[in-house]
Design goal:
Length: 487
């Protein structure tokens, strides 16, 4: 049994956790839910030994766990996989797993043995691994999460903590992943699942604990509750969201791609991609992560040069990209909020005076206004971005994109790891932007999000794009298309 009693944590004047009691039994999956900033990340960081609490106790099978030491927690039987994969990108996946427990202590590192043991463990859990020698930099986020899970399981933990592990999985992948969690439960482990996806929590968890503003507000059996009740406990009442606008958009084209080809080491990762987005519409690209979506976003961001094909936009430098990995591609964590806003060229130009110097006072005022408008919880413009929660970092990235007044926004998995309220707010902003004449390309593995927002839908699989007719929005069929199991 894993229990906490009276766990309290303060960051300055902010009380992140206020006397939280928590208990998870062996052979169960326990979901931990709450809004962004509710205290979930703080609690699991304390459980994993990454930070120390200011008060309270943690016990596992009757033994108290003390202090701040991830290594000591691993030895005690507690392993965690966090939302942002912590892997060395220039190393192969086998070399990254060598940092786990696939090799004997003080033994010579044998990558072949590591790969063999990892594949055996992966097969027992239904996890597929990449080809041998593949560098982590070439892997999709979903593959990276799987590697993190395997590395954590190599320590044979009694407790496995998973932080938003399903946020980039397509329907077919999700079913396999939930089955893996059930197998771990069947082995007698304690699985703690941090998620904002209430349907998944209800589908796989035995118990659920709800945090709100640093306090535990409820704990219940999943069999005795439903999505509406959990949402109410998390955030109170949430206004219903309007359906996707399927009416005809403007005749003015904002973005056109014609036969875009991108090759990587002799393989076509984008294969003759063509699409059109008009002003005033949101167009979706649905697909399993790793099928060319990241390369498509990189092409539109100007990071990757296509081997062939053409791109036309309504305005030069008029495309803003909200990347999938905000920490690695969207923000510089060691810089302040104000400095990160100025990474957008239109904003730098806006706040540069005739002498070529930045107008610091105007920048500070603009940043303060942005913090208020987008409900970014931070002391002020000079706050270092690394101090923000994941949800607040995402709000900052979206705010920067919209403030630059682009004609096209490319939004790649922008709601990954966000709670219901934050997701609804970002959806509202994208709708308002499109209604004002903007164009949005929404790249997502979440079909519910695609259906809720998009006037037209494409499916990407194997680097190819296929447009779906508006009268054929069957989620099961689209899920099969995404996974390449239907034609």
């Amino acid at each position: 049994m894993l229990t906490t009693a009276g766990i309290t944590k303060r960051f300055g004047r902010t009380i992140a956790l206020d006397r939280v009691d928590f208990a998870a039994a062996p052979g169960t999956i326990h979901a931990l839910i709450g809004e962004n900033g509710a205290g979930k990340s703080t609690l699991i960081n304390i459980l994993a030994g990454r930070i120390d609490s200011d008060g309270g106790t943690i016990t596992l099978d009757g033994a108290e766990l003390r202090g701040r030491s991830p290594a000591a927690r691993l030895r005690a039987g507690v392993a965690a996989v966090f939302q942002s994969p912590m892997l060395f990108e220039r190393l192969s996946w086998e070399e990254n797993l060598a940092l786990g427990s696939f090799t004997e202590a003080r033994a010579r590192i044998d990558l072949t043995t590591i790969a063999s043991r990892a594949r055996t463990l992966g097969q027992s859990l239904g996890l597929e691994l990449p080809p041998s020698g593949t560098p982590v930099a070439a892997l999709a986020i979903g593959d990276r999460v799987r590697l993190e899970i395997l590395r954590a399981l190599s320590f044979t933990p009694r407790v496995l903590i998973l932080d938003e592990p399903t946020s980039v999985l397509a329907p077919a992948e999700l079913a396999r992943f939930l089955e893996m969690l059930r197998r771990l439960r069947g082995e007698g482990r304690i699985v703690i699942l941090v998620t904002h996806k209430l349907a998944e929590a209800l589908a796989v968890a035995d118990d659920v604990t709800i945090l709100r503003a640093g306090r535990k507000v409820a704990e219940c059996r999943t069999a005795a509750t439903d999505e509406a009740e959990l949402a109410r406990l998390m955030i109170g009442e949430l206004a219903p969201q309007p359906p996707a606008d399927l009416s005809r958009a403007s005749d003015a084209t904002a973005l056109t791609l014609e036969n875009i080809v991108v090759e990587d080491r002799g393989r076509r990762v984008l294969d003759s991609i063509s699409l059109r987005i008009d002003r005033g519409e949101i167009v979706g690209v649905a697909g399993v992560d790793g099928n060319g979506q990241a390369e498509l976003a990189a092409v539109l961001a100007g990071i990757v040069e296509p081997s062939s094909g053409s791109i036309q936009t309504a305005r030069e430098d008029g495309v803003a990209v909200i990347p999938q990995n905000r920490d690695r591609e969207g923000l510089i964590l060691a810089m302040t909020l104000a400095e990160n806003l100025l990474l957008a060229r239109p904003l730098r130009e806006k706040f540069t005076g005739p002498s070529g110097l930045m107008r610091s006072g105007a920048i500070s005022d603009f940043c303060a206004t942005t913090l208020t408008e987008y409900a970014i919880r931070a002391p002020g413009p000079d706050t270092i971005v690394a101090a923000l929660s994941g949800g607040n970092r995402q709000r900052l990235t979206v705010a920067r994109a919209l403030a630059g007044d682009p004609c096209v926004i490319v939004a790649h998995d922008i709601c990954r790891g966000l709670d219901l309220r934050a997701t609804a707010e970002l959806h509202r902003r994208l709708r308002n932007y499109a209604a004002a004449g903007g164009a949005v390309l929404l790249i997502s593995s979440d079909l519910e999000e695609i259906f809720a927002l998009c006037r037209r839908i494409y499916v990407m699989s194997g680097g190819r794009l296929r447009e779906i007719s508006s009268d054929n929005r069957n989620p099961q069929w689209l899920g099969l298309l995404m996974s390449g199991a239907a034609s």
